[in-house]
Amino acid sequence: MGILSTRKNKKYSYQPRYYKGEGSPFELKHKFDEYRVTAGSNRGIKTKLNNAIDDYKYNKDNSGANRRVMIIVGILILVFLFIIGFDLSIFSTNS
Q1: How far is CA 86 from the centre of its chain?
Q2: What pLDDT, in 10s, does the model give residues 17-65?
Q3: DSSP secondary structure string, 18-52?
Q4: What is the pLDDT of residue 65?
Q5: How far is residue 43's CA from residue 5's CA, in Å, rounded to a whole number?
Q6: Is residue 72 part of a domain?
Q7: C-alpha to C-alpha distance for 48 and 66, rounded to whole angstroms
Q8: pLDDT score of 95 more than 80
């Protein structure tokens, strides 16, 4: 057992007696896995980061959620600067 590797679950060939569906009833699968590239067994931080960046680039956001998040982050930063008493006059050239 490696220090950095995750432990894999054991797989058994158990089939329920009265199950009539397709595939395994014990398969754990998320709802949106077939629509995302970032979910899966890709290993390594670099691979995950590259997949996330590609997913962000090539899947355009139609609802404007990214713009909304940026506006909220900007407002929170301004509120934080107001609370700590940050003086914006240091950016002006008046001596």
Answers
A1: 33
A2: 777 777 766 777 777 767 666 566 667 888 888 887 887 787 776 677 7
A3: T--SSS-TT----TTGGG-SSSSS--SHHHHHHHH
A4: 72
A5: 10
A6: yes
A7: 20
A8: no
Position 37 in a domain = yes
Predicted structure pTM score: 0.37
- How deeply is 50 buried, as exposed, middle or buried, from its count of CB atoms within 10 A (0-12, 13-18, 19+)? middle
Tell me which residue range forms the domain holding 45: 33-89
Asked, for residue 12, whether it belongs to a domain, the answer is: no
> Can you tell me the distance from the alpha carbon of 25 to that of 18, in angstroms, rounded to the nearest whole number?
11
- From residue 37, give the alpha-carbon distance in Å to each of 32, 70, 89: 10, 24, 46
Q: What is the pLDDT of residue 76?
A: 95
Q: What's the total number of domains in the chain?
A: 1
12's CB contacts (< 8 A; 6+ apart) are: none
Residue 73 has pLDDT above 80, yes or no: yes
